[in-house]
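Troubleshooting entry. Yesterday's outputs looked truncated, so today I'm pasting the complete records for two proteins to confirm everything comes through intact. If either block looks cut off, that's the bug. Protein one:
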Amino acid sequence: MRTYTVKSGDTLSGIAKTFLGNGNLYMEIAKLNNIPDPSKIQVGMVLKIPDDGESGAQEEVASPAAAASATTTSQASSAPGEQVTAAQLKEIMPNASDDNITLYLPGLNDQMAKFEINTSLRQAQFIAQIAHESGSLRYNTENLNYSAKALLAVFGKYFPTQEEADAYARQPEKIASRVYANRMGNGDEASGDGWKFRGRGLIQLTGHDNYQQLTNAFDQDFISNPDPVADNPEYAVGAATWFWDSRDLNTYADQDDIRAITKRINGGYNGLEDREEFLARAKSVLM
């Protein structure tokens, strides 16, 4: 019998995948440790891990959606999700390059299991959102190269005059430092925090506070060096799955509520039609 001490960012499904080779065997660990709610484990908890031969028949394991007390009775939402394949991602995102699919696929499967995006409906909803947010896996860093006209249209609150917009146009670092100053845990414009903690990852993670929480979750210093959130595919996906989990978006995925998910990611409903098109394809492929 093995033991494991829970660390920040761990989930039972992720632990089950690591030790038992299958994230869907997380209920075996929950039963062995008398954990009534598998979605709630605490950092520092010492878990008993069954040996491979003790894990029991896979067909007897309850679905992750049932364990998470899904709020819908939809048959589709409770169906256990499998690992996503490159061919499936290509069907969902026809404009994604084969190289980018290959780059992000391992992290996608790993991080979806870790954060219990582990039913076909949860996977479909999550992939639809990252497909839109990343431009079919093309973008991992926020593009802030705005013209003066665009600054006035998009960020008029921060550039109320033509003169100010002209002074910042086509200067992404200056634009980010002003637009994101004094919020989300960032310092003032002179601090440069707005640029340092600009949007990165497949769901554009933005602001010092979010980077600090991601640091805590992954035990990786993204405050001193936030660039791996864009440059390392595991963290680019991990930032998205962490954000998804931190906003309890599995609950809304179980309800098949793309509007609620979009609002919590985007702050509004920008690109909703595009997200819905990705979701329709994802459902047809994964469900």
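Protein two, checking that the full record survives here as well:
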Amino acid sequence: MNKIKSPFLWAFLLFVLPIFIHAVSIKGVWITRWDIYSESHIYEIIDSLSKANVTDAFVQIYGSGTAYYDSKIAPKKYADFDPLSVFVSYAHEKNIRVHAWVNLLYMWDRQEMTDDEMHIVNRYPESVLVDDKNISMLDYSIERLKTRNIEGIYVSPSSEIVYDYLIFIIQEILNKYSVDGIHLDYSRFPGREFVYDRNLKTDYMRKYVIGYEELNDLNTEKLFGKSGLNALKTCWQRLPKEQLNQLIKNIYTDIKAINPNVQLSSAVIADVESAEMNYYQNWWEWIANGYIDFVVVMAYSPSLNVLKKQIEKINTKTSLENVVIGLGTYNQTVFDVKANYEVLARYPVMGFCLFSNQSIYEKRGSYTYIGNTIFK
């Protein structure tokens, strides 16, 4: 069956078929780590999800370099309580799939650094990203980073140490818990100004037998010519994306080797131009190359026009069958979410995911309303 990729054709179909709602396979909700603080509260959340006909729970169990499960690798949030074990057990009783949500590269978000020796930035400070002057993000204040719209401290996707550490985390989860998926977040660079770590530079030198610093040397242009130098600079600009792609591919391969039934997904930037230009997150290539099972695009804007434009641009990059649309519930009412959903559900997407549980749970009746309307 031929897939429709033209955004203009989809816009036409949306106009002439106003009552068609595409059947979806994922009706999801993101549950942040701040929501899984007690056994009783987890039970209440899952009961609410069940009432809302939720099929998939994306539960954050590794954030800021801290584990919200029984880890021997990362520092644990709770010494005598295992939120993931409780969540998986009860959610499966309610026929809800559980995706273990892991912050991949974003490791710290507070001004005062942790002194826990098990934390990745303390164990491997050399893995933290640096700027073009070789200044580590550890030497930036969190406030200074946030003025650049950067959440906090990131580690390098090019680092073999980081890769091994993340794989150990994922293996630990898969070997201890019967989760249905691994869900990555912050699977990207923090911005264009932090792509100069030595791991990336070393890989560049291995591939092209020239150092990054030499790209601005006059002798390099004399040696390779202007066109040759431009080609080398293009290769450097392409390398962060390639390194990130390789990391996702390796994680996918390792997960499937452990359990081929576990799905790998990632929350991704909805604006494909921004994803590529600002964060090197060419996630549509992950889909095309079979590096991931599906993505959840963070389409949080309350504006239906913005959302439609984002989806139509996505459809120029990839078909929508492996795309779940993530809608914001924290910045609009559930009635507004329903109105947007009714339009967006006419696209042939894989499903929808709501961000987040906290904003829904705190509004009495919201989950019941979602079950009777959006996820009916």
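Both blocks look complete. Sanity check on protein two: Residues 7-18+25-189+246-372 form a domain with the TIM Barrel fold (CATH 3.20.20.80).
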